[in-house]
Write a structure and sequence with these properties.
- By secondary structure, the protein is of the alpha+beta class.
- About 25% of the residues lie in helices and about 25% in strands.
- The chain folds into three domains: about 100 residues, 2-Layer Sandwich (Uridine Diphospho-n-acetylenolpyruvylglucosamine Reductase, domain 2), CATH 3.30.43; about 120 residues, Uridine Diphospho-n-acetylenolpyruvylglucosamine Reductase, domain 3, CATH 3.30.465; about 210 residues, Vanillyl-alcohol Oxidase, Chain A, domain 3.
- It contains 13 helices and 21 strands.
- The strands form five sheets. Strands 14, 15, 16, 17, 18, 19, 20 and 21 form an eight-stranded antiparallel sheet that branches. It has a five-stranded antiparallel sheet with strand order 7-8-12-10-11.
- A hairpin with a 4-residue loop joins strand 7 and strand 8.
- It binds flavin-adenine dinucleotide (FAD).
């Protein structure tokens, strides 16, 4: 069967069966050619149901050599290429329409070197894969808050999570990466080798090549950490968030904290008082001594009268999976928009509370994250990830299931974000950016700021023809 695949300019390439057979003969993994059909059979379907997946060819790679061959095949035939790590792109950046998907979901290996406190992680691993292996040694590296998210996209885009204040962003803990470049070469990026590429990978997204292996620095964490999870009535958000703000700015680095607003589902095992009820959840992790941590987190449990309080010493791996049930793959349509705030004023809090009250659906969230500590120890130009001073980020994360609600959910998100520009600095966090009709480079200039020029120069060195373009796309500029 001849397969038709699209090129970046929209023209089409015919790939006869014998050409695909040749690719199959090389790969240790699989070559699947659904030729434009929906790929519900992908081993790892994309998370955001708003972005349909119809790759003409999907290469399920098992190692670096497969990735080299897949890249070479796509280059030889001039195909549009998407790269999938965890498939959790909010913007649907690993969903390819009729092009070729380089799928790393079979590459989940994690190897821990406890002596040197390093973890070697394959490019398709999920956060939960890393936590599972590193926690066997009482170690961890800062990753995100939902265990099904991919290590690759999260790290390449910065990576916020429960350990940031003490240990920095995920990308700050990257010490080495193995990268398959657009021309098929395999290179190492580290402080010593290809340092320009290493700089760009720490925040610059998937622009520069396919990362087949990440090496992370590890820290002693857990196995039990102090966890705060106090559920307050959403109507009290204004007061709760003022108290939270005053607490977090003085909290020790062991504490990383956030507020999530949602209408809590009627989840089995959770008390009825919060079923189908709009709540503001004040969450925090203290990654040091557990008893000390519970004492330190106590004020977050007394910001008002919680409807329910989940706070307790908890296994770190349980904290890392606690939010998973709310974010199933391909079940939710999603559009998120975030921005940083240099100050969380009372007026900003009132605006957040007002938008939290007029959310269009139960899973439209208005979240506030406290940032700082080790994240701010790194200079804005030391890595490609430029935001190193704002103490807060607000993110409007809309999720819904019916396509008929697309317009209203997206409109709410955009208008809430627009209103927030009165209090925030307008700079988005690209990992928390959805896409409807926006072009791929929509937020790139604002998000990268001063670092964009250097990123464009590095792109010109490593990917001059913009082979890797399904990402927050930086155009090459020599
Ligand atoms: P994919 O969809 O596989 O890829 C995303 C982008 O990275 C694409 O451009 C892709 O081409 C590129 N890419 C993927 N793998 C590779 C690779 N091996 N080499 C080169 N490029 C690659 N972010 C946070 O910082 N903290 C959080 O706590 C957090 N929580 C989240 C929770 C949910 C439910 C969701 C949906 C997202 C969350 N995110 C969070 C955002 C997340 O980090 C980004 O969406 C990230 O891009 C997902 O990475 P992925 O590998 O899963 O995605």
């Amino acid at each position: 069967m001849t397969v038709t695949a699209v090129r970046p300019d929209g023209s089409r390439e015919q790939l006869p069966e014998n050409v695909l057979e040749e690719l199959r003969a090389h790969l240790r993994g699989q070559v699947v050619a659904p030729d434009g059909a929906d790929v519900a059979t992908e081993p790892r379907v994309a998370w955001n149901a708003m972005h349909p997946e119809r790759p003409s060819i999907s290469t399920r790679c098992t190692g670096t050599a497969d990735v080299v061959d897949a890249v070479g095949f796509a280059r030889e035939h001039g195909l549009l290429v998407g790269v999938r790590g965890g498939g959790h792109s909010v913007a649907g950046l690993s969903s390819v329409g009729e092009g070729m998907l380089i799928d790393l979901s079979l590459m989940r290996g994690v190897q821990v070197d406890p002596e040197r406190r390093l973890a070697h992680v394959q490019g398709g691993a999920l956060l939960g894969d890393v936590d599972r292996e590193t926690q066997a040694f009482g170690l961890a590296t800062p990753l995100g808050r939902v265990s099904e998210t991919g290590v690759a996209g999260l790290t390449l885009g910065g990576g916020y999570g429960h350990l940031n204040a003490k240990y920095g962003l995920a990308c700050d803990n990257l010490v080495e990466a193995q990268v398959v470049l657009a021309d098929g070469r395999v290179v190492t990026a580290s402080a010593e080798q290809n340092p320009d590429l290493f700089w760009a990978l720490r925040g610059g997204g998937g622009n520069f090549g396919v990362v087949t292996s990440f090496t992370f620095r590890l820290h002693p964490v857990g196995p039990v950490v102090a966890f705060a999870g106090a559920f307050y009535p959403l109507g009290e958000l204004g007061r709760i968030e003022r108290g939270w703000r005053d607490y977090v700015v003085g909290a020790p680095r062991e504490v990383t904290s956030f507020i999530v607003t949602m209408t809590f589902p009627a989840a089995p095992g959770m008390p009825e008082v919060i079923h189908d009820r709009p709540v503001a959840i004040v969450g925090a992790v203290h990654c040091g001594d557990v008893d000390d941590g519970m004492t330190t987190l106590q004020p977050l449990r007394e910001l008002g009268t919680p409807l329910f309080d989940l706070s307790q010493p908890m296994p770190y791996t349980a904290v890392q999976t606690a939010f998973d049930p709310f974010f199933p793959r391909q079940a939710l349509r999603a559009y998120w928009k975030s921005q940083y705030l240099d100050e969380l004023t009372d007026d900003a809090i009132d605006a957040i509370a007002a938008r939290a009250a007029d959310r269009p659906g139960p899973m439209s969230l208005a979240n506030t994250f406290h940032l700082g500590g080790a994240v701010h120890d790194v200079g804005a130009e030391e890595t490609a990830f430029p935001e190193r001073s704002a103490p807060f980020m607000v993110s409007f994360d809309s999720m819904w299931s019916d396509a008929a609600d697309d317009a209203s959910a997206i409109a709410w998100t955009r208008s809430a974000w627009q209103e927030m520009t009165r209090y925030g600095n307008g700079t988005p966090f690209l990992n928390f950016t959805g896409r409807d009709d926006e072009p791929l480079d929509a937020d790139v200039a604002t998000a990268f700021g001063r670092n964009l020029r250097r990123l464009a120069e590095i792109k010109a060195v490593y990917d001059p023809e913009n082979f890797f373009r399904l990402n927050n796309n930086v155009l090459p500029r020599a």
